[in-house]
Amino acid sequence: MKMLVASGKTIEEAVRSGLAQLGVKEDRVNITVLEQPSKGLFGLIGAREAKVQLELLPDGVEEAISFLRAVSEAMELTVSVEREDEGESIRINISGSDLGILIGRRGQTLDSLQYLANIVANRHSDHHLRIVLDAEQFRERRRQTLEALSERMASRVVRTRKEIVLEPMSSQERKIIHARLQANPNVKTYSQGDEPNRRIVIALK
C-alpha cells in the first residue's frame, strides 16, 4: 500500500499537495491528519505547517492491468495496455506483436485472461467492475466473422429446410449470433447443451 506524507500551510493545502504528487483524486486515498498547523509565538517563532498522510487505495482496474502486464512478461511478449471506459464496462486493449499466443484458438486464451482479470479487478474494488479484454481488435474481427457465419448458415437452413447445429461457443459469441438473427423472418435460434459445449441451433421458424 503506497503512503505519502505531505505538508502545507493548511490541511487543505497539504492534501492538495499530496494528491498532486500521487496524481490521483481525493476518492482514491485515505487521509490521516498527522499535525495541525500552528502559527507559533507572534505568528513567527515555532510556526508549524499542517502535515497529512495519504494512503493510496488500490484501484481494481489498475490491479488488473498490472496482472495482464505480468502475464504478458511471463509469456515473453512486449505489449502496451490501454484502458477505455465504456459506460458500465471497462475495455482493456492490448497491442503488440505476436499476440496469437495471447489470443489463443478462437479467442479462448483471451477469454480465460478476461475471466482472471475480472477476478483480480473485483478483489480490489468496493463495487462491481466488468472488464472486457481485447487484443489487436480481435473482438471486432471475431464479431464480424460470426455475423457473416450466422447469415450463411441461416440461408442454408432456409434452402435445405434442415436445422444446423453450430460448434460450441462462449456465451459472449452465442449472444452475437442470437442478436444477428433475431430479426430474421425465416429462422429462429436457441442454445442447447451444457458449458463449455453449449451450441447454437439455427432452425426454421
UniProtKB/TrEMBL annotation:
Keyword terms, alphabetized: Cell shape, Cell wall biogenesis/degradation, Chaperone, Cytoplasm, RNA-binding
Q: Specify where the region named Jag_N domain lies, as residue ranges.
A: 5-55
Report the protein name in the record.
RNA-binding protein KhpB
Q: What is the lineage of its organism?
A: Bacteria, Bacillati, Bacillota, Bacilli, Bacillales
Does the keyword Transcription belong to this entry?
A: no
Query: Assembly state and interactors?
Result: Forms a complex with KhpA.
Locations listed in the record:
Cytoplasm
Superkingdom? Bacteria
